[in-house]
Amino acid sequence: MPSILIVDDEEDIRELIAMNLLREEDYKLLEAVNGLEALKMAKELRPDLIILDLMLPGMDGLNVYRNLREDPRTKAVPVIMLTARGRLEEKIVGLELGADDYLSKPFSPRELMLRVRNLLRRTNPNQGGSIVESGPFSLDKNALKLHLEGTAIDLTATEFKLLLIMIESPGITQERGELLKKVWGYSDLIQTRTLDTHIKRLREKLGEHGNSIETVRGVGYRFHDA
Amino acid sequence: MPSILIVDDEEDIRELIAMNLLREEDYKLLEAVNGLEALKMAKELRPDLIILDLMLPGMDGLNVYRNLREDPRTKAVPVIMLTARGRLEEKIVGLELGADDYLSKPFSPRELMLRVRNLLRRTNPNQGGSIVESGPFSLDKNALKLHLEGTAIDLTATEFKLLLIMIESPGITQERGELLKKVWGYSDLIQTRTLDTHIKRLREKLGEHGNSIETVRGVGYRFHDA
DNA sequence: TGAGCATGTGACAGCATTGTCACCGACGCC
DNA sequence: GGCGTCGGTGACAATGCTGTCACATGCTCA
C-alpha cells in the first residue's frame, strides 16, 4: 500500500487532501504540520510520495524541499508542492523539478488526484517505473520476469530483451535486422538463425499466448497483445 | 536528438514555443496546424513528444488526443496539451492522463520548458526511464549494463539486481537478510556465502570503484557513490 | 502443383553463470 | 595479545544459457 506524507499547517487543506485520496483508493496517510517534523518523518518512514505546502511556519517550504533532495534517504521520493499563485510559484518554476510536480492553490481535487496517481505510478511499481505493460503481458525489468495472467514466467536475459523490444511497440513489425542489432548488436546484414530459435523459445514460454508473436514473412516479427 | 511535434494553428504560439525550446537545447521541431495533419505526421515520424493545442480548427483537439492514444504507433508518445482556463480544462482534468501533462494558457515559457524536459527525461532515455544513476554510476536496466566513467561494463543478471538494489538507496545499509530476500528470494534466516561471493565479483568488476560497496560488519553492505 | 526460399524445431556442444566449500585474513571483544 | 567470529577469496562442479546446425515444414510465385 503506497504511503503519502502530507505536510501542511492548515488542517482544512490536510482534510481536503485526505478526503479526496481516500475516496479513490487505499493509501496510507501520514501528516506533518511543520518542516522539521516533516523531514524527520520523511527520513524515518520513507513515504512513496510527499505533498508539501510551501507556506509553512518556521522552516521555509523550499528549504524543506531542498533538504529532502539532498538526503540520500529521501532524494528519490517524488514531491508535489502546493503554492499560491505569485512569487513562490515563480521560484518553483526556476527549479529543476526532476520527477516532481507542483500545483497552484486553489487546486481542484481531481487535478490533485491525477498528479498523485501519476507520480505514484511512475515511481512506486517496483521502485523506478520498471514495469512495462501491454494487454495481459506485464514485464518486470528489475526481476527479469514476465507476468501473464497471474503466473510469473522466468525469462533469460536475451529472451527478456527481445520480448521487451517487441512489447514496447505493439502492432509494429520489427525487422530481423533491427532485432539483431537491438538485442545482439549484430550488424543487420549478418545471416543467422539465432533470432528464430529465440523466438521459438519465447513462444514456448508464452504458452497459449505464443501466437502474440506474429511472423511477418520476409520482414521480421510483430507483437500484439491478444 | 529528441524530436518534438507542435500542433497549433496560431503561428505566434508556435513561434513562442520554438524560440523557448531552441534557446535551451537542440531539439528537432516538427509543426502541424490542424488535427489531421498532426495525426499523419505523428504516425509517420513518431516524435518523442507532442505539444498539442486543444483549440484546433476542424478536428477537435481532444479527439486528436484520443486518436493518438488508440494507435499503437503513437500510444506511448507523451503529450503536453495546451488549453485555456475554463470548460476544456475541466474536461482534461477528467482524463486519465497517464504519462501526459497539460498547461493552461497563458503559460510561462519556463514552465513549458520544465514540463518538456520532464517528459523527455521520463520517456526518451532508452524508451522507458530505464536508467538509474548515482554519482558516476549509471545502470541501464534494458541492456543490463553498467556505465562507469565512459566504459560499459557487462553485468550478469544476478550482479545487476544486487547492484541495482544498493544503488537505488545510496548511503543506506542493506542487511544481509534483506539482500538475500530481494535478490534471491531466500528467507532472511538462511545461512549462505553466496552473497559474499557476488559482492566480491561486483567489486572486481567495479575496479577502482570497488570500495563504493562498503562492508558493514555484522549487518550487511552499503553503497555510496564516490 | 512444384521449386525455391523462409521459418519452425530438436539436438548439441561450448560457455558463462552460479552456489558451495575450504581456507585465510581481519576485526572486535575479553 | 588471544580467541572466536565474520567476511574475503580462489577453486570447482553443476546447471542453465546460447548459438549453430541439420532437417522438417510451410509459404509464395510461377
Give a brief rundown of this model.
Helix content of chain A is 40%, strand content 23%.
CATH architecture of the largest domain in chain A: 3-Layer(aba) Sandwich
Outline type of chain A: elongated
Strand content of chain A: 15-25%
Distance between the termini of chain A: 30 Å
Give your account of this protein's structure:
2 copies of one chain form a homodimer. Chain A is an alpha/beta fold and 226 residues long. Chain A folds into 2 domains: 3-123, Response regulator (Rossmann fold), CATH 3.40.50.2300; 131-223, Winged helix-like DNA-binding domain superfamily/Winged helix DNA-binding domain (Arc Repressor Mutant, subunit A, Orthogonal Bundle). The first copy, chain A, is built from 8 helices and 12 strands. The first copy, chain A, has helices spanning 11-24, 35-45, 61-70, 87-93, 109-123, 157-168, 176-184, 194-206, and strands spanning 3-7, 28-32, 49-53, 79-84, 101-105, 131-134, 137-140, 145-148, 151-154, 173-175, 213-216, 220-223. The model of chain A is unreliable at 124-129 (pLDDT under 50). Chain A binds a DNA duplex (30 and 30 nucleotides) through residues 156-159, 192-194, 196-200, 203, 215, 217-218.
Which key features would you list for this structure?
alpha/beta; homodimer; Rossmann fold; 226 residues; five-stranded parallel sheet; 2 domains; Arc Repressor Mutant, subunit A; 8 helices; four-stranded antiparallel sheet; DNA-binding
Helix and strand topology:
Two copies of one chain form a homodimer.
Chain A: E1 3-7, H1 11-24, E2 28-32, H2 35-45, E3 49-53, H3 61-70, E4 79-84, H4 87-93, E5 101-105, H5 109-123, E6 131-134, E7 137-140, E8 145-148, E9 151-154, H6 157-168, E10 173-175, H7 176-184, H8 194-206, E11 213-216, E12 220-223
Parallel strand pairs in A: 1-2, 1-3, 3-4, 4-5
Antiparallel strand pairs in A: 6-7, 7-8, 8-9, 10-12, 11-12
Chain A binds a DNA duplex (30 and 30 nucleotides) through residues 156-159, 192-194, 196-200, 203, 215, 217-218.
